[in-house]
Inverse folding.
């Protein structure tokens, strides 16, 4: 029995939307979302304050064909709405698991979820509730990675955790280049200079300027989220 304490008091967890598909072609795979929530519950039960941003790739990429030739901003609003659906599904699964989750949207959609109001989000976190930030930044031409950086900075998170389909940042996309090697850590400047596609440059730049480190790790690896929160060796650290 160990009484080791978490290395972080408040975190911003960015969950991959695409990972929610599991082995399905698109949408939300029930057992995958339940597994993700079990991992989240582990760290919430350690007393860590958890805010979440979830991507929309599992839904949005499924309808992306329909957005071909569409006005870019309109297609981006569709993408943001996809993240609202994922956020609702995630919060529902968390509530069923015994956690208390609140969804806050960057786009006004008040019959469905409450609007993002920073002091309210901070209050929820202090009360031990999990806050899910939906609709990205609320602006087209951005991504949910940037939303994670933005909300992470706003709520004073100590770390942004990017839980994705790969187990860290590689010298090239490991899905395209099998010879790519994984970094245990890399500076924001180096990641940006090498144009590493794991996150967009806006998200990297915001975190670098705010000195907000990022850990990239696999959401499919059991216990990885807990190990990151405990400060153990897992994934890749991106630092200022
Ligand atoms: N240098 C790199 N190191 C690691 N992964 C990389 C790199 N370059 C590109 N990738 C790819 O980036 C993907 C993760 O980024 P992406 O933003 O698409 O996913 P996500 O955030 O998990 O999904 P979503 O947008 O659905 O939330 C990985 O699956 C990997 O194939
Ligand atoms: O702030 C934001 C966040 C997202 N979008 C749009 O949504 C999709 C899905 O987000 P992912 O980060 O790719 O999962 C994204 O492709 C954008 O089209 C946005 O416009 N603004």
């Amino acid at each position: 029995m160990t009484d080791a304490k978490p290395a972080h008091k408040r975190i911003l967890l960015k969950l991959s939307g695409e990972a929610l598909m599991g082995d399905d072609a698109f949408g939300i795979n029930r057992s995958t979302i339940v597994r993700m929530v079990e991992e989240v519950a582990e760290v919430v039960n350690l007393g860590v304050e958890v805010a979440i941003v979830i991507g929309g790739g599992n839904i949005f990429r499924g309808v992306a064909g329909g957005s071909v030739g569409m006005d870019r901003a309109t297609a981006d609003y569709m993408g943001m709405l996809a993240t609202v659906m994922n956020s609702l599904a995630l919060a529902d699964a968390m509530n069923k698991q015994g956690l208390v989750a609140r969804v806050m949207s960057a786009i006004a959609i008040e019959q469905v979820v409450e609007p993002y109001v920073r002091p309210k989000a901070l209050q929820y976190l202090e009360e031990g509730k999990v806050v899910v930030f939906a609709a990205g930044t609320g602006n087209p031409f951005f991504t949910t990675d940037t939303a994670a950086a933005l909300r992470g900075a706003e709520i004073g998170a100590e770390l942004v955790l990017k839980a994705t389909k790969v187990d860290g940042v590689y010298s090239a996309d490991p899905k395209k280049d099998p010879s790519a090697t994984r970094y245990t850590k890399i500076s924001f400047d180096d990641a940006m200079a090498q144009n590493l596609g794991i996150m967009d440059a806006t998200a990297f730049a915001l975190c670098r300027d705010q000195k907000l480190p990022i850990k990239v790790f696999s959401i499919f690896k059991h216990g990885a989220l807990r190990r990151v929160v405990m400060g153990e060796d897992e994934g890749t650290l991106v630092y200022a």
Notes: Strands lie at 10-15, 49-54, 101-105, 114-115, 130-134, 159-164, 185-187, 214-218, 236-239. The chain has one domain: 10-238.
